[in-house]
């Protein structure tokens, strides 16, 4: 325990120095609060540094309505948070710290430098200017509460237990994805200790594991402009158009990651899942068949394996020939209508049975978390414990790729800090009996 002369009181303790924690700490301090930011790793923002493959997809310039469609399980819950602080606001905050940004395909906003480190340094600069006290290698083990009122936190700091006095806490610990960056579900434990309901955490935006060896044979192959469909118990439930990638274990890439949320939940419910890939989504079966006939007629004396180069990436050709049991050395004019139809159908429906998904080490984000039904959407304050707030991935909110998840972190953190600071001011100004 801290000795009395060592103890220092704060208006708020922010737990976790990721994007949400940095925004929450800086905003609370900006509004006059004395802030302690506690980070269990040796440095801040480790997960931020790997977002966007190290480029940092800061946000998305889409309208709120588009955000709502890309956030689960209830995007509209974030309406007050987005109203308080949205994409233009984080871009302006970073611009004030010298970060130039560029809008790319799909409204994705990146630093022009393509450096996540530049974004982290800017946030750190912004926080430090507001005189936030940051301690590292320190883990909040318990939030102390008396009569439903927060009184402080107990911290393990380099193996020593300390108590810090504070009437308020903002939990910004992230989820469980990329645990090496410090996201190991600590916030769920802290919230659970105080009676909060936790929706089961599971990997989201995660690669999928498939049966058989076809994916392994195609390892490293990237496909663009294809359509992937999810079938659950033989019913088509969703599809995505874009880019995907084959890995030794199965499927990954943008459209697979987007579809994975449904797949993970279905597999957890022991349902049968398969992914169907349409390699030629711009052509219906009749048009595709007509093209195959045209190419076979024009190249009748060529070997079939060479004609396939007109239709597919080279890595797919042996897989197709093997799957369809077609002799690639035959000449084009020797392919009969039955074989041609098999080729056409496989191009429109290359199917993989999904047996599992990769773990939190490879999941971009976490689905599940502290139930939104127990957090006031207008303030981000707990409905169970006064002056306990939540921000970011620790909440049961997750989104598709494209900068949406980071914006959730900034917006909920800004709203939480603003609401908390207002409470502190009102409490301080309230007349004493």
From TrEMBL:
According to the entry, every stretch annotated as the RsdA/BaiN/AoA(So)-like Rossmann fold-like domain falls at: 11-418
For whether the record's keyword set contains Flavoprotein, the answer is: yes
For activity, the cofactor(s) needed are:
FAD
Which InterPro entries does the annotation name?
BaiN-like (IPR004792), BaiN-like_dom_sf (IPR023166), FAD/NAD-bd_sf (IPR036188), RsdA/BaiN/AoA(So)-like_dom (IPR055178), RsdA/BaiN/AoA(So)_Rossmann (IPR057661)
Residues of the RsdA/BaiN/AoA(So)-like insert domain: 202-365
Supply the alphabetized keyword list.
Answer: FAD, Flavoprotein
Query: Quick check: keyword Flavoprotein in the entry?
Result: yes
Matching SUPFAM superfamilies, A to Z?
FAD/NAD(P)-binding domain (SSF51905), HI0933 insert domain-like (SSF160996)
- UniProt-listed PANTHER family: OS12G0638800 PROTEIN
What is the protein's name according to its record?
FAD-dependent oxidoreductase
In which organism is this protein found?
Sunxiuqinia dokdonensis
């Amino acid at each position: 325990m801290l000795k009395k002369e060592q103890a220092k009181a704060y208006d708020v303790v922010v737990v976790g120095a990721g994007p949400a924690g940095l925004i929450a700490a800086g905003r609370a301090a900006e509004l006059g609060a004395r802030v302690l930011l506690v980070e269990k790793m040796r440095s801040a923002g480790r997960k931020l540094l790997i977002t966007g493959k190290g480029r940092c997809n800061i946000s998305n310039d889409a309208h709120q309505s588009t955000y709502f469609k890309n956030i689960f399980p209830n995007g509209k819950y974030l309406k007050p948070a987005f109203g308080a602080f949205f994409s233009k606001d984080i871009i302006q905050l970073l611009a004030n710290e010298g970060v130039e940004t560029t809008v790319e395909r799909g409204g994705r906003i990146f630093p022009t430098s393509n450096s996540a480190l530049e974004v982290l340094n800017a946030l750190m600069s912004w926080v430090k200017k507001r005189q936030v006290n940051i301690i590292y290698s320190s883990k909040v083990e318990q939030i102390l509460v008396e009569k439903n009122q927060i009184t402080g936190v107990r911290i393990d700091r380099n193996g020593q237990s300390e108590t810090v006095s504070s009437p308020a806490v903002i939990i910004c610990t992230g989820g469980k994805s990329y645990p090496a960056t410090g996201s190991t579900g600590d916030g769920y434990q802290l919230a659970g200790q105080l009676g909060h309901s936790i929706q089961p955490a599971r990997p989201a935006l995660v690669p999928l594991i498939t049966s058989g060896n076809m994916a392994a044979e195609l390892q490293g192959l990237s496909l663009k402009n294809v359509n992937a469909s999810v079938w659950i118990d033989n019913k088509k439930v969703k599809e995505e158009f874009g880019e995907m990638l084959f890995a030794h274990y199965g499927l990954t890439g943008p459209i697979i990651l987007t579809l994975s949320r449904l797949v993970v939940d279905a597999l957890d419910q022991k349902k049968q899942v398969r992914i169907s890939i349409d390699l030629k989504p711009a052509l219906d079966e009749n048009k595709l068949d007509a093209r195959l006939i045209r190419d076979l007629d024009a190249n009748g004396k060529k070997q079939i394996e060479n004609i396939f180069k007109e239709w597919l990436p080279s890595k797919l050709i042996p897989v197709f020939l093997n799957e369809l049991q077609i002799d690639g050395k035959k000449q084009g004019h020797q392919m009969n209508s039955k074989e041609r139809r098999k080729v056409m159908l496989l191009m429109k429906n290359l199917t993989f049975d999904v047996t599992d998904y990769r773990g939190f080490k490879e999941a971009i984000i976490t689905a599940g978390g502290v139930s939104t039904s127990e957090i006031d959407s207008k303030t981000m304050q707990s409905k169970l414990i006064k002056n306990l707030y939540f921000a970011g991935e620790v909440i049961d909110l997750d989104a598709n790729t494209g900068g949406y998840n980071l914006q959730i972190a900034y917006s909920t953190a800004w709203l939480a800090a603003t609401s908390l600071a207002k409470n502190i001011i009102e409490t301080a100004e309230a007349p004493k009996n």
